[in-house]
Amino acid sequence: xxxxxxPGTANKKRMYVGLYQQVTDLPYKGGVAYSEDHGINWDYIxxxxxxxxxxxxxxxLGLQLDLSSVPGxxxxxAVLDGVGIYRxxxxxxxxxxxxxxxxxxx
Length: 106
Hints:
Blueprint lengths: L1 E2 L11 E5 L11 E5 L7 E5 L12 E6 L9 E6 L3 E7 L10 E5 L1
């Protein structure tokens, strides 16, 4: 679990989490999720059952926030079991849509 260190975020409410589920868990939904409300609600920003935003289907074994990235243009690094290492970037032209991410092999 990563709590966004952005000092402008009240009460540190922005969070990211790497998901790991057993293959026998249905539906199989390893991936990366994002919360704007202290973890009450989560949305996938990568991976999941359909390989959303370029992050392929796979369990996330590690997740790191690039601290040199700025709020609104965050960069995450995810390690996927048996798949590889991927870099996720918030769309720099997201017009405030914090859920728009693009993932690519790192």
